């Protein structure tokens, strides 16, 4: 196939998020138990959600595959009635004017400016009271808004939509209309087929809705559209910063062009992670190329939900190393939760983000074959009168074909090598924070299967940390860290559990469920027995046992009946299925740690800390104690701490009278961030050895000193 050149781009460019659509039904609307989706169904005739990619064998005639050039898209003229906004720029254009996150004469093209805008987001406290989120800057005066309440895929879709529509850039996605058996395109040109005709009863955005750009100036009253403002994405989309109003009100606040708000509402209702793993819309990249604006996708099965994590920050602390931060929404919707590099690392190195392991499907497919992993948006270009989603020439060297499963599957292992290393203590803290974050979510939405799965992902990480660093088994870890609620909200098999379709459970229901569990355990204790907690799920009689308990407590009015809040193929299963292969041991089989006898004065083996210090027997770091050569979790694990040193770098009790550090012999090293390190001095991940950096520590003796930032350096 002829390799297209960016020089063929038309001067007119459009941008907006295009949808991938799998199935347009007839005009009869399906019942979804989501009033927002029912409303959209009645309006457009599209009554499906999480629509699928174009089936293999149905690709555009003459193409038949997706490669660097992308697939042949729609033929549509600028200014048609379906248009959401007009295209005034190409993504490759370089302009001198300052903008949202760049100064004048930046020399950046619009893809680079998009990445810079994402990377400039201000971190703010999350409205849930736990962790952080981010604040979105707009080009409209000083208007900036806390991130709204979204599902995970919606975060990535909305960010791309905002930027492109604000700056007149083209963007579209494609999907499949199974009713008329044709490819459907959605984006800056509206919802159209390959000939440019409007699909179904989708709006003629240009004719129907207002665009206030050109008439509004900073200082003017903000124009508002009361109909747009009233729309919701679901019962779970309340935006705290707007007093609990829904997504439509948020769109009304950020878009002067109200057409974009109406479009965004439909886009986010109909599309999910399955559309983002479609090669026609995003492409795989090499780990080393990852930057803010890219998207990490988790897929553990071909059908059902996945997880979408936009990259929000990227930093190169030293050559060959990366620090990456991500943010993600959830199902039910929540304000996106920010994950700093230490927390985000586990997502990049997991098999489920495109790794080599065997997926949860029964066909033997690996995770790499499901489309997950680190991806980048394709760029819309106009070629021969038709739009294409294209891999830019600037990105070709990082591109990985979607059929190169070896290269795709190798990426988690490569991320393991290049992402900044984290001490065992810090890894432990992060894993426990991730577990607690999902527990908090389940206390708000007890039916959330996604939160159950993410909690177990974090426990798997915790098991690995404890085993690799301290030789502890999962049963021992469970005895220390599992809580009753982990067993009550055990992980369920998504495709065979109708609980997973229920997004409207509440915090009051969680209180009722956990009260039932505590009463169940109290009765067992009186009988001198251990009873496995009853898992909250749909049983043969539905959720009757918890409803009965709510009545006993006088709280039956607070119990919300099950509803199909998302399309639920498993709605009629007689009983939900508990995931059995994820390491959650039996409640009555966890190993209680045996009490250690009070030892005599320290006489056992010392322990080396991962940060370089050496501790005598019974010496304590901030979170662990050295017990005869082995680290044990928790100070006091083998008696009173003989001494305490919290950084891990100096150790404690080896030398009561510290001696003067030796005079360094050998050449010093200059750090890439500006600091100067003496011979044998260490940065967090390297040691200076006679003028040469060596990865790791102890290459030329114990670290003379350690300096974390690299900017100051150290020399004793």
Concise structural overview:
The chain is of the alpha+beta class and 716 residues long. It contains 17 helices and 28 strands. Helices cover 24% and strands 15% of the residues.
Major sheet: 7 strands, antiparallel
Task: Trace the largest sheet across and list its strands.
Answer: 12-11-10-9-13-8-16
How many separate helices? Answer: 17
Rg over CA atoms? 28 Å
Give the averaged pLDDT, no decimals: 85
Helix content: 10-25%
Distance between the termini: 61 Å
Q: Supply the helix-strand structural class.
A: alpha+beta
Estimate the strand proportion: 15-25%
Overall 3D geometry?
globular
Q: Say how many strands there are.
A: 28
- Outline the low-pLDDT stretches: 1-32, 591-599, 656-662
Features:
single chain; 716 residues; alpha+beta; 7-stranded antiparallel β-sheet; 3-stranded antiparallel β-sheet; disordered N terminus
Task: Describe this entry's structure for a reader.
24% of the residues lie in helices and 15% in strands. Residues 1-32, 591-599 and 656-662 have low confidence and may be disordered. With 716 residues, it is of the alpha+beta class. A hairpin with a 5-residue loop joins strand 24 (669-670) and strand 25 (676-677). The longest helix is centred in the middle third of the chain and has 22 residues, at 449-470.
